[in-house]
Amino acid sequence: MYTEKVMDHFTHPRNMGEIEGANGVGMVGNAKCGDIMQMFLKVNDDGIIEDVGFKTFGCGAAVATSSMATELIKGKSIDEALKLTNSAVVEALEGLPPQKLHCSVLAEQAVKAAIDNYHDRLEGKTDCECNCVNCGHEEEEHTETEE
Fold first, then answer.
1. Contacts by 120-123 with C-beta closer than 8 Å and gap 24+?
2. DSSP string spanning 27-89?
3. How far apart are CA 50 and CA 38, in angstroms?
4. Residue 25 dihedral angles phi and psi, to the nearest 5°
5. Residues 84-104: tens digit of each pLDDT
6. Per-residue pLDDT band at 133 (split at 50, 70, 90)
7. What gap in Å lies between CA 144 and CA 132, rounded to an integer?
8. Among 43, 93, 126, 141, which has the minimal tally of Cβ within 10 Å of its Cβ?
9. What confidence tens digit (pLDDT) does each residue in 33-81 have?
């Protein structure tokens, strides 16, 4: 059974959607359940996450954990956001059924993938037009640079 918080974040997700001008984007997925999460970060010059968004293809728990993860990192520094754990997401949602805990793991991984992408961009390791690392573009379409 889902908690009221899980149902609220599923039926009224926060920060849903792609962010124009995001400077950190990460995508993760779980082949077994089919859930895919994409996280978008807009980080200011002081390293604070000014805006965050997500796109999730998956079950209600996947949407709820994505939504809660965005709430937990918005307004935080990159270093604080890196400390986000799947346990913190579950706790903030007041629990998840055991068979849905993998969704909280994906939410944590999506945040960390977006932060990794943000760092890669700062270091000039990627300039992919679709704002990602390992985006899946065909090689001739891909504009990512590698060092």
1. 121/23, 121/24
2. EEE-TTT--EEEEEEEE-TTSBEEEEEEEEES-HHHHHHHHHHHHHHTTSBHHHHHT--HHHH
3. 17
4. -135, 130
5. 999 999 999 999 999 999 999
6. very low
7. 8
8. 141
9. 789 999 999 999 999 999 999 999 999 999 999 999 999 999 999 999 9
Q: Is the pLDDT of residue 134 over 70?
A: no
pLDDT at 130: 54
Nearest to 52 by CA among 80, 33, 91, 93: 80
Residue 103 appears among annotated catalytic residues = yes
Q: Which is nearest to 61 in space by CA: 19, 93, 17?
A: 93
Q: What is the sign of the dihedral through the CA atoms of 132, 136, 139 and 141?
A: negative
Q: How many CB atoms lie within 10 A of CB 101?
A: 16
- Residue carrying the six token digits 């200011």: 44
